[in-house]
């Protein structure tokens, strides 16, 4: 009886201590409004029972899936000691894989959360040809709003400036979201944010190389 009582106590503790985090939702393309199929989605869980380094938390486990034909996904992770969870799309490489995202919510540990996501796929190439028509060496500072969802922290810019000799030229390459007019901000002096004295707009078709010339 004592052994049975011990087993029951352990079982009850396991049931009461183990919690489940569930996250589900839909991922769509914010430009086309269509669902994104086959997109990797991951849920990372972090341990709350050990000293926490906020800049590099200890991951204790993860759950992975891909979206179905309708852009739907569902993830579940069970553990007794987690205190935080993160959700990643395409392994979290938004800027470096050339798309941004917007979420309807963030996942919560030990809860069930619906997180719908909009992403902006990058599927066009923009080449900017810089031509220095002046009689002196100069720099061109160029910033491109690479995707529709990009607001204040641009992934695509040449903040240090590109030197161009008198009468010379240089080329810059940007990966951008397609089927829209892409804003191009530029100046011959450094500028912050989107506060450039010159703003152009270039239409970029999908999976197409587009060339735009800036003369200064």
Number of DSSP strands?
A: 15
Question: Main β-sheet: number of strands, strand sense, barrel status?
Answer: 5 strands, mixed
Number of separate domains: 2
How many helices? The count is: 1
Rg is 24 Å
How many angstroms separate the termini?
A: 90 Å
Give helix % range: under 10%
Mean pLDDT: 85
The CATH topology assignment of the largest domain is Immunoglobulin-like
Uncertain segments are 4-16
Give the CATH architecture of the largest domain.
Answer: Sandwich
Would you mind describing this structure in some detail?
The protein has 216 residues and is mainly beta. The protein folds into two domains: 18-119, Immunoglobulin-like (Sandwich), CATH 2.60.40.10; 124-215, Immunoglobulin-like (Sandwich). The chain is 7% helix and 49% strand. The chain is built from one helix and 15 strands. The chain has one helix at 2-17, and strands at 19-29, 40-47, 59-66, 72-79, 82-89, 101-103, 112-114, 117-119, 124-131, 138-144, 157-164, 169-176, 180-187, 198-204, 209-215. Strands 1, 4, 6, 7 and 8 form a five-stranded mixed β-sheet that branches. Strands 11-10-13-14 form a four-stranded antiparallel β-sheet, with no helix packed on it. The chain has a three-stranded antiparallel β-sheet with strand order 3-2-5, with no helix packed on it. It is elongated and about 75 Å long. It starts with a helix and ends with a strand. Mean pLDDT is 85; it is low at 4-16.
